[in-house]
Amino acid sequence: MVGAAAAMTSPPPPAPGGYAFLDAATLRRVLPLSALIPHFRSSLPALSAAVHSPPRSAFPLPSSPSNSLLLMPSWSSDPSLPYIGVKIVTSFPRNSALHRLPGIHASYSLFHAATGVPLVALDGSQLTLLRTASVSALAASVLARRDARVLVMAGAGSLAPFLIAAHRLVRPGIDRVIIWNRTPDKARILAQSLQEEEGGADEAVTFEYAENLEEVVGLADVVTCATSSESPIIRGAKLKPGAHLDLVGSFSPRMRECDDEALARGRVFVDFEVAMEEAGELIGAFDRGVISPADVAGTLVELVGGAKSGRRSDDQLTVFKSVGTAVVDLLAAQLAYENFLQGERLRTSGGWQGVEEYRRRQG
């Protein structure tokens, strides 16, 4: 054990001032999507096999039968990734109705793998938004048509703007974004906000909202879904040839964002194999004999690593289903911590004026 610890590469030392907390605003600054997507592209094939992530542990809480505490640990056995990480999540589903608060809160802690020394804590909710959107965009960079122009966003929650931004990074030809939500006002408000950020209706990208999803889904070159739906909202018959379908929302057998036809028509990939045990769309399709696990073309690691081919023709429908794992949490936390430290050293050295200037100079 001593030899293994000695061989472990030392991570950068703690930031000036010691143990730090990276809040949501800091994370968005040091972990931009434009950096996280290529980081996943290179690190997932190289390091994912070395990251150990046991099944998450869930504990009911005495405050209410519906409240729970979830622990998601991971650690690396690769000397080039000398970290241990733990995501702690609280789920209080009645928060919105009782307290006007989000139902999910999370924190992420990063430790030195050789010594166990705590290095940094991160806003777990923001980390999850950034890594989830980056994973979807990385898959789309291989699976979506290069000439994609229309993006349909199903869902207008906290993840939606991240998914839209990430897909636009990998498919910069997207010039029309249509947002749908079960509550139309939420879709309208998000579309208006994004259009204002873009600079108005005269800009190259237009943001719209739709009240009827089935009327617009057939226009989409890329459809991305981030909902908690338990019944299909995307029907395979409505998807046009060559579309790419990104499914993010479901993470349990009872949840389902698309019907069986979408899976039967498509070339299906998953983020990790565990998706075939957790995603309601896949579990149901397997049980009904629509597709089998052998019909899943591969994982994201196989796709970006070149072990499996992606889209085979311009008319082929592709599907990517993600459920998220502690592997991408650890890799995202690694990049956030190391970027933060680099920016802090530049700030305290007096050479540059803060992390913002560092990020600007890095482009």
From TrEMBL:
One Pfam family of this chain: OCD_Mu_crystall
GO MF terms, alphabetically ordered: oxidoreductase activity
Coiled-coil region: none
Gene Ontology biological process terms from the UniProt entry: carboxylic acid metabolic process
GO cellular component assignments: cytoplasm
Family: Belongs to the ornithine cyclodeaminase/mu-crystallin family.
Name used for this protein in its record: Ornithine cyclodeaminase
Source species: Musa balbisiana (Banana)
